[in-house]
Amino acid sequence: MRLTTSLPADPRGVPDLAMARHLEQLGYDGIGAADVIIGDGTPGLDPPLVLAAAATATERIELEFGVLSLPLRPVAWVAAQVQTLQHLSGGRVVLGVGIGGFPGSPFWRAVGAPPTGRGRWTDAALRALPGLIRGEPVVVGDAELTLGPAAAVPPILVGGNSEAAMRRAILYGDGWAPSLISPGDLAVKVARLRELAAELGRPVPSVSVGGHAVLVDDRAAVESFVGSLVNAFGMSQEEAADIPVTGGPARVTERLAAYAEAGADAVGLGLDGEQWLRQAEILADARAALN
């Protein structure tokens, strides 16, 4: 199973890039960067810049957008950034994309991002991106655009738990990337993903699950995260409590195995800020036991 996590951040939201090398040494497959710029004072850094910095600190580990909100950015700009990062990193990019989760937030309004029609915007961007990254002529708006230097198109993961996101992944992506979902619910979704792929006559995408982990004895941190799911997403307390991965290596290995049995090919877990290094080691040990 492929395993990723994001870099730790200080209270200002600035990642410790020295930890990128440590993740590589621990055997992680990827470093993720979330696209959570809201504009209300919540710390949030620009993913392309975070991953470019991580690229300079590492040699092997993949650099994953987890996930980039396409409606926030002109598609030509996204393509140019991906091209650049592919060249800077030696082709280590994994491009996770989605429709974005904070429409109407101050940042979205400030950059003029569309609060509606995000699915159509994302579909159009996904149709254009591969050709742009490869350096082919592509019509964008009223311009025929050719970007260079050409780069290899990275694996494209389409985020979102909805059936629309699954269809988007089947039609335009290499993988589907649901998040904040229990193994039981994932199994149901993966069965539907396979049905949709058969209906559309397309290959079944890989499945990369995003989630959150608290791997130290910190009940307050678990309760805080569960509460945030209840408040932000309207989950029931029981449903939300089944989302975070908790416990020591043996328990975490069981959870990773449950995701694998449900159809996951990869898992990316954000780690709670306290004792980040110890948690990263526990997660790496748990994956090693699984494999």
TrEMBL record:
Database matches in SUPFAM superfamilies: Bacterial luciferase-like (SSF51679)
Which keywords does this Swiss-Prot/TrEMBL entry list?
Answer: Flavoprotein, FMN, Monooxygenase, Oxidoreductase
Tagged with keyword Flavoprotein:
yes
Q: Name one GO molecular function term.
A: alkanesulfonate monooxygenase activity
Q: Which InterPro entries match?
A: Luciferase-like_dom (IPR011251), Luciferase-like_sf (IPR036661), SsuD_RutA_monooxygenase (IPR050172)
Per UniProt, residues of the Luciferase-like domain are: 18-225
| One Pfam family per UniProt | Bac_luciferase
Q: Which domain of life is it from?
A: Bacteria
Q: Name one GO biological process term.
A: alkanesulfonate catabolic process
> PANTHER family annotated for this entry?
ALKANESULFONATE MONOOXYGENASE, ALKANESULFONATE MONOOXYGENASE-RELATED
Its protein name is Flavin-dependent oxidoreductase, luciferase family (Includes alkanesulfonate monooxygenase SsuD and methylene tetrahydromethanopterin reductase)
Q: What species is this protein from?
A: Nonomuraea solani
